[in-house]
Amino acid sequence: MKSLKQTLSKYAKTTLVLGGESTPQLEQLKSDLNMISKKNKAKVVIRIIILGVIFVVWAGLVWIWRNDAAKISLVFGASGVTVSWLFQKIVELWEEKTASEITVTLVVSMRSDESQSVIQVLASKL
User: Fold this and answer.
1) Is 41 part of any domain?
2) What pTM did the predictor assign?
3) Is 2 within the bounds of a domain?
């Protein structure tokens, strides 16, 4: 959540809404948060595709080496770390994507002082 924290920290000290009207800073914040969400969604899709490719390769190697248990265990042992790392990254990216979408919804629907407080708290807690 590094990019989300950096973005929120950038806007934590600026006034985003004046008297119920949007300011350029609020529009830029919404744009930045939406960009984080879209980038993370694309990264998640890419990692899921990579997981699918790894699964197909595993299945192919298991089929090729179906009579050689030593080679099969080597393949699973070597690629197990990669798969667990990919799952971890997918979860982290999805959490950041969700947090950025929720932040956009909160900031847009709240009063100026409330939205400013939400951004400051989120920036300090992430």
Assistant:
1) yes
2) 0.74
3) no
Where is 21: in which H helix or E strand? Answer: strand 21-22
Residue 68, domain member (yes or no): yes
**What's the Cα-to-Cα distance from 26 to each of 2, 6, 17, 70, 87, rounded to whole Å?**
20, 16, 7, 59, 34
Cβ–Cβ under 8 Å, residues 11 and 25: yes
From CA 61, how far away is CA 18, in angstroms rounded?
62
DSSP state of 8: H
Per the structure, the complete domain to which residue 67 belongs is given by 24-125
Using DSSP, state whether 120 is helix, strand or coil: helix
* pLDDT tens for each residue of 86-96: 999 999 999 88
State how many domains the chain has.
1
Quote the pLDDT of residue 20: 54
State the Cα–Cα distance between residues 112 and 9, nearest whole angstrom.
17
